[in-house]
Structure of Cancer susceptibility candidate 1:
Amino acid sequence: LKLFNFEEVGLGFKLSKPLAKSNIAVRVIHTRYDHLSMISRITHPRAHTTSRRSSVSSDQILRDSSVQKGEDDDGIPEQKSKKVLSIQEEGKTKDPNPGGRGSQIFTQMEALKAESQVIPQPITRHASPVVDLMEYTPLGGVFYYEMFHLPHQAYTVGQYVMQQISDKGLQVFLHPTETSSFRDNEDSTCPPVGASVTLPDRVVFFEPPHVARLDATCEQWRMDGISDIAYEEAEAKLSFSMETFQPFVLMQKTYLNLPFQSWELRPLGRSSALFTIEGALFNLSITIQGNQCMLQLEQERGLSHLVGKWMSTPALKKAMLDAGVNIFVDEYTENYVSSCNKDPLAEHAAYNQMALFASACAFSRSKWNAKCGAEHVVLQVCEHHDPSPVPKSSWSLYLLGAQRSKKLEMTEDSEAFSSEHHPNSEFHSTFIHLLQDSLSPDGLDRTKTSYCMFIDTIQSLLHSTRPLVYSETI
């Protein structure tokens, strides 16, 4: 293969010698905006997968479905409305689970939805060359490599310059492949073409990038037909071979940094905090000041537009996703990442109450959160006012539930989980009332005077990352 390399733009390609001697032209275009992935998502929409953490248990759904089926067979349609009312009354008066689910109240629409809900199953992923755009994220834009017939060249005849003009524009050169219909010699070989790219400087790949080519027939990205992949990490250069030139993208696993190994939210001052995450592949921290956030990351290559810049939470999230620095979750995350099964009501209430006290208290992951059951949440908490790290001896464990919260007698280093409450503490219906009992006057003043937009920003970050659910369970 003959190599053509353009170092000033970080692009290159390889052609076989017969192809290089042909009258062809190669056009290379790199666009930062990726509209092809958007077309793929629109033309091949993914069926929504309902969360496996339903507020109604699977047994209840099965029981309701079987009862409803029997009623329909008996020809008594009015029983459906009676059953809906009974579900509402059961949610209001009966406490089937003292652990915290008894406080849930269903509306009529929610009850109807629970009746018709089918138990969702995890997505079964088979080995397929077609790229799942929920599991993989295209980064750095699209690379277009195309071959054309060389246009008729001008030549001089006497005092005249003559050139044949075509009104058809550039004509695509069909590079022969093994399946090409015009190959006459079955023994002849069709050498592939090669491409090399320097990774875009505005994105980060924490693993060797995956290459996907566009299948124009179905408008989907595919990972087959790519061979001889070589990645030079020091030079951030990727080269590979393909049967023929096609548009391609570089991809990275969407949730490669999940689950989190550890996390911590601690105050730096009034209406200021530091959110630190230790992920599966990289660590980062986000400083929150009022309603502004600033990312700090060990890997800074190509992220000068992102690292150390103050921006709003939505702007920071978009910039991080575009750069391949993803710590955020969505409705599909649980299909690809192991997680703790937690009651959504208890989990979301914990985030909201943590945000209210983020100016005065530090919060951190506890390994016992995976051992306390789905209806409870366990985390480490302590009052902390200065920007220095929290001493290990200052942490205490708190057990949060939908009906009551308490401080635990055990510590993070205990040998087994115990729900016994601390002898010098009391039970409370909410987490914030429990914390208020032990806060100093200065701590209480900080919580009462916290900037409302600071609280909203903390809530947004916690709900977007869900550290109580997507943390290491071992």
